Every structure is written in C-alpha cells, then in structure tokens.
Amino acid sequence: MTYCVGIKLNAGLVFLSDSRTNAGVDHISTFRKMIVYEKAGDRTMVLLSAGNLSISQSVREILQIEELEERGRDGPPITIWNARSMFDAARVLGSAVRHVYDRDGEALKAAGVDFNVSFILGGQVKGEGMRLFLVYSAGNFIEATPETPYFQIGEAKYGKPVLDRVLTPDTPLDEAAKCALVSMDSTMKSNLSVGLPLDLVVYEANRLQTDKVICIDADNPYFRMIRDGWGRKLREVFDSLEDPVWNDDQSAHPLKMPAGRHGALRKISTRDEKLI
Amino acid sequence: MTYCVGIKLNAGLVFLSDSRTNAGVDHISTFRKMIVYEKAGDRTMVLLSAGNLSISQSVREILQIEELEERGRDGPPITIWNARSMFDAARVLGSAVRHVYDRDGEALKAAGVDFNVSFILGGQVKGEGMRLFLVYSAGNFIEATPETPYFQIGEAKYGKPVLDRVLTPDTPLDEAAKCALVSMDSTMKSNLSVGLPLDLVVYEANRLQTDKVICIDADNPYFRMIRDGWGRKLREVFDSLEDPVWNDDQSAHPLKMPAGRHGALRKISTRDEKLI
C-alpha cells in the first residue's frame, strides 16, 4: 500500500509520501514514491505515485527517457522539460500513463491484474502560478482548487480527518507540513502497509527550486515528537470530555432519550411481541 | 453505507449504530440497523447489520418468524430464543444468512450484485458470560477476545484509530460509550453516507436485560457536546504541537536531514542527470 498527500497553499506546496510497498503481507519492500523534476529558475515539479509498482515505475521511466507522442501543433514533442504550463505537464503524464496501458494493459487484464495507478503532480513553471493535479489510471486528471486544496492517493481514509480540519489556502507552509505528518502518522498507526522512511518536500511559491527536501526515518526528532505527542494529547482530549450521564436533568449534556418519533428502538421481547 | 460498532468489556457490552442507507448518493434513506432480542432474566442479544439491506432484512425476518433448520441432536429446532449459548445463537444467525444465500444468491449474482452482508451479534444467555461475534456473509463467524475487544462493520476506517487508542477490557462502560460516539462522529464527518439518528445500547454484565437504550438525534445534548468538543479540542492539540524547524540545531525536535543512506531523494535536475 501507499499513502501520499499533496497540498496547495497560497504560500507554496507541500508533498509527503511513504515508501512501503507490499504484494501480500509476506512480501513487503521499500520503494520511494516521490520524484522531483527540477530546472532551477525555470520549473520545479514533484511527482507522487500509488498503485501497481510496475505501472508507476514504467510511467516514470517514460517521463525520463522517451519522446512522448503528445505534440504541439507544429513544434517539437512536448515533455515535462519544455511544457509551457503545469497543465501541459499533466497532459504529458496522462499520455505516459496511456502509453503504458497500451503496452501492458491487455496482458495485465489476462493475468487478472487491474490497471491500477494514480499520481499527484504539482509544481510551478516560470510564467504561471503553482498548480496541483491528480492523475487517474485512464490518464485523465483533475486540479486542486481553494475549496479542496489537497489530494491524497493510496490509503487515504485514516489520514483524511485532520487534513479536513486544518487545511485552507491560507494555512502557513510549516503548519501544513505538520498537518501532513500528523495525517501520515494516523495512517501508519492503522495500516501496516504504509511505512517509513517518508519523503517530504516543502516548496515556497515562486522560488522555482526546492530547498526544503527531507527524508524522515524512525530517528527523526521532529517526527518522533509528532508521533508521541499526538497520540498522548489525543488521549488527554478524550479524557477531558465528560462521560455520558443517563437521563439526569442536572447534567449540562445529558444522554437523554429524546421525545418524538426517533425515540423507539426496535426491541423484540418475545418472538411474537414487537415493540417498534 | 453503514457504521456499527460492538464492544465487549469486563463491565458489559456497548453497541452503537447509525441509520443511513444509500443506493447511490441520490437515494438516501433512514433504516435502523440495530435490533434487541430480549427475554428479561433469561437472555439479551443485540444484533447490528451492515451490507445489502434486502439481505440483512431477510435474515432478520427469518430470525423472527421461521423455524430454522439448525437442529440440536435430538431436540426441537434451535432458535435464538432457546439457544443455550451465544455461540449457538451465532450459529443460528449464520444459518439464517446461508438460508437467504440459498434463496437469493444466484439471482443476485445474475444481476451483478454481491452477496454482501455482515452482522455483529453480542449479548448474554443465562448461565454463561457475555460474548460478542462478527458474522460474515458466508455465515461463518469470529468471536471478540481481550486483545481485540470490539468489532466494526460498514465504514470502519475513519472511526478505528480512537477505538484502538482507548479500548481495553478494563475500560468502564460509560467511557466506552463515549469512545464509540467519538468514533461515530469521526466517521460521520468523513462519510456522508453515515448519518443520524444513532442507536446506542449499553448492557451491564449479568443484568440479562437492557435499561440503557437510547436513540440519539441531532438535538441530543451529549452528542452535540461530543461533536463540538472533540473537533475544537483536536484543533487545539494540533496547534499545541510545535511547527517544524528546518535544520536548526537549537530546536529540541529539528526536522533535519538524517545522515546515511536514507537521506537522498530521487531528484532529476535535467533529463540526463540523475541525483539518486
């Protein structure tokens, strides 16, 4: 499994990925799922991948070494290195996904393997603002907006609530990085197939190069603080909420049977007598 | 969708269910998923159901009105009303699931519908301790143990972390009820197809009848306190964790590039030059 998250803020972009892959619980390996494409001063792109590793590796290889068929109307082939916009770069990525599908799709289907892959692609090309895309296995894609400033791929559910509670376009970069790490911590706690080390990139708007690039392993002091602190404090919050008080009018928040139609549970006291 | 949780503690049992069903997001209805079977002083059982509603309703109907084929060696048919143990009651339930499969399975398969159903059955029969079972769509089942004192069915992921952090066999009943409600709140926040009203039953060990039975709607003071308080305090905890400090040796918890082999991210600076 995999967990990756990409976040687009006014202040910049944040990318975080785990590095565990598994083919069954008895076949677990470490593969990095993040790759940075950078021509300093001209473009910076970060690619995160999830799904079938043979597919995502093929797509990444094609992005690097092959001329793609996606062409401008008259000019040379468009690649991620000469794309004029992130939108064009997302099209190049989608085209690479379709290329692999054309090559491998039928054989995978014959073997009963889904063509399962997804990507987060974000970054900035000189001359336009930052953009963040989610690319599906059909090569189609969607773009993040202020209402939904992040994308997840892989095991998304455990880590989603904290993203929803914290992230807005105005969130500062370091706070968003913290949020992504808490989200990753929740995911790793609940799904053994998501694991260390993590790759984290924090990109400041309009820099057109990445300085804050880090690999986080089990010894990282900050991530250890997150892991210990979040769990302990969550428990303190839980304990600070009052326990329910049943049908006590003295309580400020009684757990009281409401009046009205919703009050009756279906309770069968004998086989023939129903209290509905 | 559905979210139900059943918890077995030394002090008793806790059951919580939502009441939303959907066939697509444009077809949402309210159906209660909890049913209590009780012969006071002799047996109390609580049944929670998830999956295809036509299947779970059929199973519940069979449990009520039909004689089941599951027979004791010589005696009369075993039903949930004369089962000598919760284990036998779980077998009766499994048998009812298989009965519906025999009747509907083929037609459902022809229509491309999975035979998707699952149940949590817990309670106590006079003469033995409390027991809690998870019954699958094949009619087979597993029992909760001290190491795993709870079962979930339906949309389980969002609400699982808090159960894992809080529940042990020694957890008091009211604290476990609070924990189940927090778990439900997290699930409802992230999955629109899980919704109010909720049914909550708290059963005290060896009572052989249920007093604490409640339906919780949007006006319930305690659940409103949980919803407001948990979200607000989670945010406070998040804010109380320090933001990352990059490569600063003065920080107690720097987010620092570790030495060693994990330090290098795959970064491609031009098409031909790889920094690995």
TrEMBL record, chains A, B:
Q: Name the GO terms of the biological process aspect.
A: proteolysis involved in protein catabolic process
Q: Name one Pfam family in it.
A: Proteasome
The organism encoding this protein is Pseudacidovorax intermedius
- Name the InterPro entries for this protein: Ntn_hydrolases_N (IPR029055), Proteasome_sua/b (IPR001353), UCP009120_prtse (IPR016545)
Instruction: Provide one Gene Ontology cellular component.
Output: proteasome core complex
Name under which the protein is recorded: Peptidase
